[in-house]
Amino acid sequence: MLRDVPVIDIAPFRTGDAAAKRRVAAEVGRAVDGIGFLVITGHGIDAGLVDEVRAVSAAFFDLPE
């Protein structure tokens, strides 16, 4: 059965109080236990760096074996 990949905003974990951190941790736990995969937002990593890492990764996996 195909399930939607959960998108979880982790900003409250980075900047929130203990209760907010527990909520985010519980969401991540449910995602990992349920589908085994998740997409995170609110991580604070610059979009340009994400794009650069994605490009370098793609180039690496395009290399011959």
- β-sheet strand percentage: 5-15%
**Gap between N and C termini, in Å?**
34 Å
Order of neighbouring strands in the sheet with most strands = 1-2
How can the largest sheet be summarized?
2 strands, parallel
- Quaternary status of these chains? single chain
Helix count equals: 3
State the domain count.
Answer: 1
How are helices and strands ordered from N to C? EHHEH
Average pLDDT rating: 93
Structural class: mainly alpha
Q: What overall form do the CA principal axes indicate?
A: flat
What's the alpha carbon Rg, rounded to whole Å? 15 Å
The percentage helix is 55-70%
Strand segment tally: 2
Low-confidence stretches: none
Protein name: 2-oxoglutarate and iron-dependent oxygenase domain-containing protein
Domain Non-haem dioxygenase N-terminal: 5-65
Organism: Elioraea tepida
What would your notes on this structure say?
Pfam families: DIOX_N. Residues 5-65 form the Non-haem dioxygenase N-terminal domain. This is 2-oxoglutarate and iron-dependent oxygenase domain-containing protein. The protein has 65 residues and is mainly alpha-helical. The chain has one domain. The chain is built from three helices and two strands; from the N terminus they run βααβα. The chain has helices at 11-15, 18-34, 47-61; strands at 7-9, 39-41. The chain has a two-stranded parallel ribbon. The protein is flat and about 45 Å long. The mean pLDDT is 93.
